[in-house]
């Protein structure tokens, strides 16, 4: 069991890629909050496949129906359920290959866990499609956080071995406007000179029937100090819990992350100073805005490793789970050569949800 | 609030560094399980400061008293509570410096969160001392897992910029005996030629009144396929949740982790084959034994980034939170120049606990 | 927040009487369980208004759509979501009276809690209609329990002051067939001679524009000994928690319940004996099959007090919440003169759900 | 598993009657709250056996040690753990009778659930002694509620068939002073003329080696409107959940409870009126201050059925669980002929805890 999450808010996610629909229930949202459907649709569109240049050309219906919890355009305070119906789901295609376990996918682990009863079509419950309801809830939460001036943004830190620069506490890339503006870029990077190289890396992989991954760096600005807990609900714990539920995420780090292990304590420690208006600030932000699991008022910074899309056109070695024989598989269809761009709104949503649960 | 964790088992942790004592309640352990006190003490000793060469020379009392849940040497099935009393706690020392926020510590975030009412002595509830109850529970869980042939071990992957090699699916470092044997090394590495260089790195930092961090790599072998869940309780989610509650952890990655983002899909995907005895295996293990949040039967591999100990002897810039003025601080006392070695049993314990909760 | 419940299974309920729809997500049901739609519809029909003789003549659409978690007619092991769409919802009617707080309803408490943003139409989220998803899940659970030979049934113990006899451990009314058979009665009583008197009591109240309540007595037979927990998840705790969420429930008692307070200890204690096949039994069942929160293998017996339907045709004194003035209200429409009969499958479902969560 | 409870606060209870000690962890209490040890001890004393006239003459040590979460006499905001050590526990006595299942006790159900590994001495984890930590936490919560002017009190509604009158909305027995004052009575009743008859009923049972039970009626005054939730966390759900974990509780009802089933809707509905200061009130309080699971600002009223103490001196029929034979048992020792008086502070505490969790 796994479909519920949260303490102060509760999520309950459901659905399979080729079932009747997917959706989510969110409980714990205060009454009276005005729903901005355009904003939700805008965020969901960022996750949608797009024009197919860097993503699949497959069309996905992401139109959501709100079943409950909204009345006269405002939250009622009771559970909100949103459903996204599945359409044009060619199920027959999957029958033939259902026993061939796609490498890098959850076909085999799902088969074992659910004793062969899982819906194998299009990845079933493991489908990346399940991130659409996350973006729905994320958009809701982001608007609520925005009213508190808490803003979340992210950029593509790397595609394969092409790197963007990182957020830097000393420049202005971390002000509200800039962070927010990132989501208006179709391919958000801090250093625009790396964009084309990143895109070419994706297109080359696509041409070869292969795929690439990358790293997303996200920032939450204006998170007040004092949010989060020590054992067991640190900001890092809450955030990583939900991030590591997102398909393809294999690493999460905060602040300088793994790089902090190569610093001396005297370099890593973020020394304090009083600002002119007598608030506490730090000279550096190696701890990513978190100490003892609790926010210190500096920007919350984290990075997420996204593995290359497991669906590739190349022939791969696998097994037939029914016949218990070695086999080869060639995955047909329109695949994402890279899901990093589409992952951005999902990661930002996860952050918004985790923060809502801690506030 | 944060002190409870878990679904199938429930932990409830409590205590401050200089209060009456620290401890933990664990509920959900099956009745009839024989308690091995020696094994528990052995694991707790690994976490204890040791002879002080690479760690603090401060003595910590780690003797635990079992208050409940054990009868005639076996678990009763009711909640187990273990208490570790604090001793020789020189509280007076802390009075003078209580308003000086130590950089890299949770002094400031704790002050804000708890509105100045937190126990500031020795880090209070944020103290690394709180990891002792985690090791107690971890030892309990490890013994239970051991009966199912599930074994956990870890080694020091790096100290600052000195690197050990990684677990390699193709060599024998991942068999039960070897993994288990790691904990018998005082300073566990896979490639013994790097040990001295690592130790010198620590000693040099110590000499300079500075500190270093590092990376721990852990392996869980013989975890059966089918454990874990997709949204929201993937193995990665559960494990990272508890790992990121451990003080000083700033990054967690599974399998190839951040490195997988630099591979092509065709390299990253772990292709399958049937073994002679008709079980499913993979040629590589870039996914660290987890797909779709669920174990696939391969070794579960993860790495944890430990930041340099924030307590250093060097003078640091900080603020006086009461006077709201800039200040400098020089932290006296016997500090750990590096806590990576002591972190190993804590990380292994966290893994054991997370797995117990998923089984 | 309140919409989620459970440990081993998780429910997430949503919906308003006059919104797009109502529904439920249930997580934690094992894969491979065959869905019996006819059985579910049969149970839902028992809860539906019926022919209107003893209930409202209002038509309610109880057709459910399964959105997820079922594949090829069997559970997949992933969250199951069922949605029931609302139809013919004449919302305009409610506009005029929305500020008049109906006595005995949740209009006022909902208004305060949700700060006036709640959906007031037809009771909104407080509507008895929300019990339909409970019956859906209950039917699922009952079938699973039935495979373990655990059977749940209930009868009308009283309507106003007309009483049926109670389950008696010494007669055969507690065998599987009899308990199960109860649900086949349209108006289930143990002593059929009281049926007509009960029905006349309802019809008289209806004629007077008034309403009546009653007591439901339920039995769970073949529940194995050893289910449930002491602090804090006793069978009584779990069961009462969910029963007291059902609208109109004002009392819950187990075994002899409040009557046990009038016995001597020597009368109340259920003495033990060994049966011929060396299993443990009791001579009496004053404790209703539960000791220390745990089942003892005897039939689990409990009673539930259902208050008279608050919707009555008589003029009642109330307030206008907007104008802050005294007012009178005459509730128009087709009301249930008594909801006890319709409550039976809901109570049985609640029991099935609570037991599923404890097994 | 069962030892944890709560959402906004989290309890974790542990201990056995004859183990090293019993205790509780409570998390989620705000920092800065001043601890009133005298008040806690006063409440714990109410639960303690007393002078033995109406209760056991057994001495119980109820001295608690606060292990954590309190600093300089105030809550720190981190988990509070209190431990009560067990003393003078004559364990040998229990060895001889451990296979004889005491009727009305949890010996048999505990034996089955914990597979014979439970601590059988003095009821082990099922002991009424476990209510001491509940009173500890309850006293903490009551003081916090008291600062919000929310006051809890209770009286003995009945002992066996001797009845006190009920709280009446129209008299002054429900004002803060009177409700609070109840706990200052050693044997709290509303109508003092019934006290002696009740006490004689207890003494007669004692003389006969028998026991009696009774009903406790409790009131919470000044609970603001808007507290609680519909599905699944109604006030009734939360409160009954914790009440039904208290040993010996067999029934819980709110407001008129089971009696409401014998009223007409027009009698049962609590009609509204505006008070002079324009607040909403009701003429009657049959719903006990709760509608739709949410408080309406009227006094919260509930009754709890306490069964006769199962420990009686009379010979009873039972089984030897080891030999699987019929046996007789004569329970030696100093028993409570009635635990209703001692149950009052426990029930009030449970109410305080449930309300704290909902506020």
TrEMBL record, chains A, B, C, D:
It is an enzyme of class 4 (lyase). Its EC number is 4.2.3.5. Pathway: Metabolic intermediate biosynthesis; chorismate biosynthesis; chorismate from D-erythrose 4-phosphate and phosphoenolpyruvate: step 7/7. It comes from the Bacteria. Its cofactor is FMNH2. GO terms for biological process: amino acid biosynthetic process; aromatic amino acid family biosynthetic process; chorismate biosynthetic process. Reduced FMN (FMNH(2)). HAMAP family: Chorismate_synth. Homotetramer. Belongs to the chorismate synthase family. This reaction introduces a second double bond into the aromatic ring system. This is Chorismate synthase. It comes from Clostridium fermenticellae. The lineage of its organism: Bacteria, Bacillati, Bacillota, Clostridia, Eubacteriales.
